[in-house]
Write a structure and sequence with these properties.
Helix content: 40-55%
CATH superfamily: Aldolase class I
Shape: globular
Bound molecules: zinc ion
Distance between the termini: 11 Å
Strand order of the largest sheet: 1-2-3-6-8-9
Number of strands: 9
Radius of gyration: 19 Å
Structural class: alpha/beta
Number of helices: 8
Length: about 230
């Protein structure tokens, strides 16, 4: 399973499909609605000839990922969803309901809430249709602390609570993208080795622990948060 995340051009999707990707995302969410529809439809028509599935996006997430960045959430409008899915033929749809890309989503003291009411409204309009949430890292405070204790300088930040994600995972949400938490887990593990054993220079000795930390993190997410164990 190989997925292109946030493809921004038709040509990029074509390249990935021709190189054997099993799924591509075309993110036209920053475009005017009709242009998003047209671009997504074009990718779907090409991809489906090769049995490659396509994820589209409606609504814009706050935060930064790769070259995609936005200062504020633009929530997905439930009334557009049905039309978008029908016109484009997408296989899954990423929506914007308050999650956010990156590790610096919200400041401590904020109480970030996913707009589950929008999710419910969307589910009513396209029952059972696979929904995707991006930007769903929780920014575990013990990892931020570990990084900073071992020479790091991460500013205070919090993410989406795992309780909020558990609620979303019970709905038609079929994929929840979590990237920053994995970056934090690997960075914390590597920093710890470098700090405690400054003489170490064998990558196996720090990349090994980093990989173990990543496995542990995702095992926790799969079993305790997403409820996706055995559902692939
Ligand atoms: Zn994303």
């Amino acid at each position: 399973m190989l997925l292109l995340d946030h493809g921004d051009r038709f040509e990029l999707c074509v390249d990935c499909i021709e190189s054997g990707f099993s799924s591509v995302m075309i993110d036209g969410s920053h475009l005017p609605y009709e242009e998003n529809v047209a671009l997504t439809k074009k990718v779907v028509e090409f991809a489906h000839q090769f049995d490659v599935t396509v994820e589209g996006e409606l609504g814009v997430l706050a935060g930064i990922e790769d070259e995609v960045s936005a200062a504020h959430h633009t929530y997905t409008q439930p009334e557009e969803v049905e039309d978008f899915v029908a016109k484009t033929g997408v296989d899954s749809l990423a929506i914007s309901i308050g999650t956010s890309h990156g590790a610096f989503k919200f400041k401590p003291g904020e109480d970030p809430k996913i707009r589950l009411d929008i999710l419910t409204e969307i589910e009513k309009r396209i029952p059972g249709f696979p929904i995707v949430l991006h930007g769903s890292s929780s920014v575990p405070q013990e990892l931020v602390k570990m990084i900073n204790e071992h020479g790091g300088k991460m500013k205070d930040a919090i993410g989406i609570s795992e309780d909020q994600l558990r609620l979303a995972a019970k709905s038609a949400v079929c994929k929840i993208n979590i990237d920053s938490d994995g970056r934090l887990a690997m960075t914390a593990a590597i920093r710890k080795v470098f700090d405690e054993k400054p003489e170490e220079f064998d990558p196996r000795k720090y990349l090994g622990p980093a990989r173990d930390a990543l496995k542990k993190l995702y095992a926790h997410k799969i079993n305790n948060v997403l409820g996706s164990d055995g559902k692939a």
